[in-house]
Structures are given as C-alpha cells and as structure tokens.
Design goal:
mainly alpha, two-stranded antiparallel sheet
Length: 493
C-alpha cells in the first residue's frame, strides 16, 4: 500500500510526545550526575552509577520493539499503547526522584525511570517508518531531533533558572531540583497524550493480520511476554554467544536452534520475543554492522561528556570541585544546564536544515561533518576559562547532536523489512547502549589510572573518540533512496 504524505503539522503532532520523553533524558544528562555528586558519590563511582541507562536500553528496547511489531489493537493501535505506558511510568518516577535521600535510592529510581523512558521511546522510531512514505523519512526523523533539542533545552534551562530563583534545601537536595523534576512529570505524560490523540495508525492488511495472528498463536498476553522476555534475555544472549564459534563452521546452526525453540511450545513461550530478536540479529543488513562501529566511538564519547561536563566547567571556570566548594559547584551545575541548553537550542534550530542537507547531499556526508565538528568542539571545551566562550564549541556539538538523533536512521531504514521496523529500531538502540555499558564498566579505571580523575581530560578523550567515529562513517555505503519522490498530497485526520 502506498502511504500518503502527511502535512508538516501532522508530522509535528505525531512527534510532540518525543518532547516529553527527551525532557526526561535532559534531566538525566544534566541533573542526575550532579545529584549523585551532592549525595556523596566519588568520581570513579559515577560511571557504574550510570549503568541503569544502557542496561535498560539493552534489555527493554529490543523487546518492546519486537512486541510492538506483533501487536495490533483496533482501539489502541500498534505503537501507541507502549508510548502511554512508558510515559505514565516516567512521570511517576520523575515526581518521586527528588525525594531521594541516599545514593542507592537515587540509583534505584534511575533504573525504573530509564526502563520507562525506553518503553516510551522505542516505538516512536518505528512509528516514523510505519506512517510516513519513504520521501518523508528525513523530515520525520529530524523532527524527532527537533523535539529532542527542545525537550532537553527546557530541561537544562529549567535547571539554570530554578537554581537562580528557587533557593533552599528540602531533604537531601536543593529545592530547584524538585521544581525541574516536577515540571518533567507534567511534560512527559502531557506531550505523549497529545500525540496519541492526534496521530492515527494504519491498520494492517488482511494478509498482515493473518501473519500477526499466526505469530501470536499460543502466546500469552503481551505483558506476560514482556516479563518472560526480560527474565530470559541474558540466558538467550549467552546461548547466542556460545553458538558464535560453531557458527563460523556451520552458518545455519543458530537458525536451526531458533527454529527448534519456536517449534517447542514451552520454549517459545518462555523465551518470548528473544527468539525474534536473535533471529533479526543474525539477519541484520551489513550497513547496520558498519553503523555499530560508528556508534561504538560516538556513544562512548557522549557518555564521557555527560558524566564530566559539570565537573569540567567547575574546574576550568570556577577552579573548584564538587566536594571543595558546594556553593560554587552548584553555580557550575547551573551554568552547565545553560550550556547544555544552548547546544540543544542549536539542535532544534538546525534539525530541519539537516533534513534538507541529508536529502540533498546524503546522510553519510552530513553525519561525517557533524561528528568532526563535535570532536573538535570537545577538544577545545576543557581549555576554556571564560564561561561565555563555552557556547562556541557547543554550537558545533548541538548541530552534531541533531544529526546523531536522526541522520543515522536514514542510513538503515530502507535496508530493513517493514514487518521488523520495531525490532530493528530496538537493535539500533542496542548499538547505542552497548558502548555505554562498556563505558560504565571501563571508564572508571581509565579515569582513575590514565586521566588522574581529571574531568577536563575526560572531555578531551571524548573528543578524540568522536573524530575516530567520523572516520568510521567513511566505511558506510548509503542507500540513495531518501530523495523526494512523488507527492500525492497530505491527508487529514
């Protein structure tokens, strides 16, 4: 079926929910690590305390993607139920997060918050591919970049403004932390409800519905499948890892193992969506493997930046550290919110420009240039002593962030089958979170032994990794099918 084009306002309405989800991620980027610092975390403990994000992304997103591929409700749709459940849980966690009275409580709530965010965000990527025709993919994905920038901008500016104008301490944390998280509670659920109410999903054809019914035959309720998939994920990946070496000599051994499990009713139920995820991994297009190498350097670097930005600014501009002068460090945290807010302003201002550039010159060239700008910016960042000059390198970083949140999907979306949009978008997220997991497990050692726990050196290290990631982009052969095609005209709701 030829999908009709949507109007610009329809694409905006479809992606408004991304704004609330990204507000939450903005708070995680700029507020959670300073909260850890305020609760007494040591510098080399920060990476492991951030394990929640990548681990929940690794476990949750592929499962949610596979589940949403197998879901259809005439009343609620395919992807929208997952938006709503994730956003509701996210709002609840944001409300309670400022009440964290200890490091373990803050870390525990972050796990739940990240699980909720991943549940809400994963189907959003697949929704673009579900609803939009090929020629509007660039506009759809870069609209998500626009709302990524807008949501994170509001999160960071709220930290700066509330820190300036809402003084005092409540419990273990400043009052301004409560205000920022309470605003996130409203943004998260409110924006997703708006998108759900404004965006219809196309029903599957009769043939597609037959395939869905056959796939779900004998399977329990999706909620039960979700929890079974979570419980058996690590074991399923362990079996896959064990079979990798035999697969070098017998390329069909993994497929035969999956087929055997699928034909065993108990195993099919117990492993639930993990069988679909592993099969998709074994059939993954080569362009996705090449993108995984880019993502290895790109996302490792980003985690280094987010964990160390506030401490680097405190060191270079205020000449202090978290435990030396808490008042000055709070000021540095507020300024970090403004700096991060600026790069996200640049993100939403440049998103639609990048959509045009990707259509004109191709996503490969666009992403290459953007990663170079970000890498050079981070190399300069820790050497800047004037707080106002920090906005210069963050301008290039903001353009690159817009690219990171949208352009790579253009490199792969035409290479994956439509019936697997959800699971492959989840696998792309695995490519994001695996480098983050590596970072959380390895960077504490690197920071302590090689960088002397120096936050400025950590930022420079991130800049070098981004430049290596830019070189890895050159290995990707892009699909040219992102140019404007026929325009049958927008449809109404």
């Amino acid at each position: 079926m030829r999908k009709p084009q949507l109007s610009f306002s329809q694409i905006i309405n479809m992606n408004v929910g991304f704004f609330g989800i990204q507000y939450s991620f903005g708070l995680q980027q700029s507020a959670v690590n300073p909260i850890y610092d305020m609760l007494g975390a040591a510098p080399d403990e920060i990476p492991i305390l951030n394990l929640a994000g990548p681990m929940t992304g690794l476990l949750i997103q592929p499962i949610i993607g596979a589940l949403s591929d197998s879901t259809w409700s005439p009343r609620f749709g395919r992807r929208k139920p997952f938006f709503f459940i994730g956003a509701l849980m996210c709002s609840i966690c944001l409300f309670f997060y400022p009440f964290s009275s200890s490091l373990w409580m803050a870390a525990g709530l972050l796990w739940v918050l990240d699980a909720a965010n991943n549940t809400a965000m994963e189907p959003y990527r697949a929704l673009i591919a579900d609803v939009l025709p090929d020629e509007q993919y660039s506009k759809g994905f870069l609209t998500q970049s626009f709302f990524t920038g807008l949501g994170i901008t509001l999160a960071n500016i709220s930290l700066f403004v509330f820190q300036k104008y809402i003084p005092g301490i409540a419990g273990s944390l400043p009052v301004w932390v409560y205000a920022s998280f309470f605003l996130g509670t409203i943004c998260s659920i409110g924006s997703v409800i708006w998108s759900i109410s404004k965006t219809p999903e196309y029903p599957p054809s009769e043939k597609e519905l037959e395939i869905l019914n056959e796939r779900n035959k004998g399977m329990p309720h999706p909620a039960i499948q979700f929890f079974l998939s979570i419980l058996t994920t690590l074991f399923a990946y362990l079996v896959l890892f064990i079979l990798v070496i035999p697969a070098l000599f017998d390329r069909k051994i993994i497929r035969r193992t999956i087929h055997w499990a699928e034909n065993h009713p108990t195993l099919k139920v117990v492993f639930a969506q993990n069988l679909e995820i592993i099969e998709a991994l074994t059939q993954m297009p080569s362009v996705m493997w090449k993108l995984a190498l880019v993502y290895l350097f790109q996302w490792y670097a980003l985690f280094c930046y987010w964990q160390n930005a506030a401490k680097s600014i405190a060191q270079s501009v205020w000449n202090t550290a978290p435990l030396e002068n808490k008042s000055l460090y709070e000021e540095a945290v507020g300024w970090t919110g403004l700096v991060n807010g600026w790069y996200n302003v640049v993100t939403f201002l440049s998103a639609f420009f990048l959509a045009r550039m990707a259509t004109k010159f191709g996503p490969k060239k666009v992403h290459l240039i953007c990663l170079i700008m970000a890498g050079v910016g981070l190399l300069a960042f820790p050497h800047i002593e004037n707080k106002y000059l920090l906005f210069a390198p963050m301008t290039g970083f903001g353009i690159a962030w817009a690219s990171m949140m949208g352009v790579p999907y253009l490199l792969v979306v035409n290479e994956i089958p439509k019936e697997r949009y959800g699971v492959y978008m989840g696998i792309i997220n695995m490519m994001i979170v695996i480098p983050m997991i590596l970072q959380t497990l390895s960077f504490g050692f690197i920071s302590k032994t090689l960088l002397n726990n120096n936050p400025g050196s950590a930022i420079s290290f991130a800049g070098i990794l981004l430049l290596i990631g830019a070189l890895a982009v050159l290995r990707i052969k892009e699909n040219k099918n992102i140019t404007n095609g026929p325009t049958p005209g927008p449809i109404g709701h």
